[in-house]
Amino acid sequence: MDIATDSFYAAQQKIYPRDVLGRYARLRTIAAWCLLGLFYCIPWFAWNSRQAVLFDLPARKFYVWGLVLWPQDFIFLTALLIIAALSLFFFTSLAGRL
Question: What is the spatial distance between Cα 69 and Cα 49, in angstroms, rounded to a whole number?
């Protein structure tokens, strides 16, 4: 038995992804374009003669659509995010994949 020519492993077939077509793929593409456009355009929106979403780190102020948030206000944001995560877990376990 010649070790150089015989192999114990078969060559694997290549796997090629197929194109995904349909309503949800199109909806995902449209949503991605809209969200990326919003992400890149928000810094140029003006709100009360100021940038609409501005994180002023040296002054420790965060301006979000006219609302001024200070660093001590982020405990409320943390609580809101925790409530949102727990409600997501609760409703997913309650309803499953409806």
Answer: 17
What's the CA dihedral at 89, 92, 93, 94 to 10 degrees? 120
* pTM for this predicted structure: 0.52
Alpha helices in the chain (DSSP H): 23-41, 74-95
Query: Where along the chain do its domains lie?
Result: 23-95
Residue found under tokens 């949800």: 24
**pLDDT cut 70: percent of the chain above it:** 91
The residues that bridge with 63 in the sheet, in sequence order, are 54, 68
- Rounded CA gap, 68 and 53, in Å? 10
